[in-house]
Amino acid sequence: MPGEAPASTTYDSSGHLDGSGHQDGGGWSRESFVEEVGLVWEAAGSSRMDGRIIAYLLITDVPYVSSAALARALRVSAGSVSLATRRLVEAGFIRRHAVPGERSHYFRVDDDVWGSFLAGERRYLDRQEQLAERAMELLGPEEEAPRRRLGNMRDYMRWVRGSHQDLLTQWRTYRSQAADQATDRQTDQTTDRQKDRPTDETAAPAAGLQDEGGPAAGEPSAASAPADDEEIRDHLSATLSPVLARHLVPDALWAAAEPLLASGPASGTASGSANERAALTAVVYVLTSGCSWQQLPAQFGISHSTAHRRFTAWSRADLWRRWLDALSAAPVDAADLAWCSTIVKSAASRRPGSGG
């Protein structure tokens, strides 16, 4: 099921995070990162457990993780995880994630976890300002000293809140510019590779994958974006773990979906199949997580505009209903069938033209 330990995060025989995996020459590993971040948080006066959980969610290769998996990976009690995740959710560092049909608690971090924290911290400042004002109402006219202190508290929180708004605006501008620069570099690299290709290798777009109505409102035009399959191949090996696809699109679901998907330029090759599964995985994540297309995490290896184009084409081809029908006719587990049904219902709520 989604949210369990990824293959890229190694575990020992007890299910604990194994520091021997993915080390560099100096012994630096995923476990080292988790523990070091915990120590930094502790030195700053925060909970070490909070820092460890943030670090684990940042470096793990699944989109959301259960509280039970966190307890196993960090070798702590379920109660410790419960207290820490509650604090982190309230502070805006992490988010709860609901998995249909699952009673377990799941958690995830946004790609912009620090911007989310800045936005969440403003609620704390608002509350502190309100408390100071309410406390001043309790004072008598002769209590000048506490009135000065509480007035200073109120004014400070008000001033910091205004600074936070400016800082958040500056951060979002910086992040947007950095993303644009990364996209420009990627487009330049793709263009250079395409120039080096023999012209007889150029293939026409596959039937069923063309966005007949053009891009959706707010989506980049197809002319300005790299070809979908080329873009996916650029990132697949570096950012998409095979276990991630199996969490969101289990093997049984993929076996039913693969024949229904229109073949891309790499039809009949292993890379073409992997590209299709990567695209389907990204689309399924958006559909089942409730996030917008623009919030698709970069770890999926494709842009939000590519994922949206695939979703639009597949919806127009009635892929979702046919997928569920094919799976219903196959000998699959009830859990797989229920998960596919959830995906199909989510897709129906986001059909082009429905406002989803």
Give a written overview of the molecule.
With 356 residues, the chain is mainly alpha-helical. 59% of the residues lie in helices and 2% in strands. The protein contains 13 helices and 3 strands; from the N terminus they run ααβααββααααααααα. The protein has helices at 30-43, 48-59, 67-74, 78-91, 113-136, 144-196, 228-239, 242-248, 251-257, 270-289, 304-316, 319-328, 334-349, and strands at residues 65-66, 95-97, 106-108. Strands 1-3-2 form a 3-stranded antiparallel β-sheet. A hairpin with an 8-residue loop joins strand 2 and strand 3. Helix 5 packs antiparallel against helix 6 (144-196) and helix 7 packs across helix 10. The chain starts with 29 loop residues before the first helix and ends in a 7-residue tail after the last helix.
* Span between termini: 26 Å
Order of helices and strands: HHEHHEEHHHHHHHHH
**Count of discrete alpha- or pi-helical segments spanning 4 or more residues:** 13
- Portion of residues in beta strands equals under 5%
Record the strand order, biggest sheet.
Answer: 1-3-2
The shape is elongated
SSE order and pairing:
Blueprint: H1 30-43, H2 48-59, E1 65-66, H3 67-74, H4 78-91, E2 95-97, E3 106-108, H5 113-136, H6 144-196, H7 228-239, H8 242-248, H9 251-257, H10 270-289, H11 304-316, H12 319-328, H13 334-349
Antiparallel strand pairs: 1-3, 2-3
Helix pairs in contact: 1-2, 2-4, 3-4, 5-6, 7-10, 9-12, 10-11, 12-13
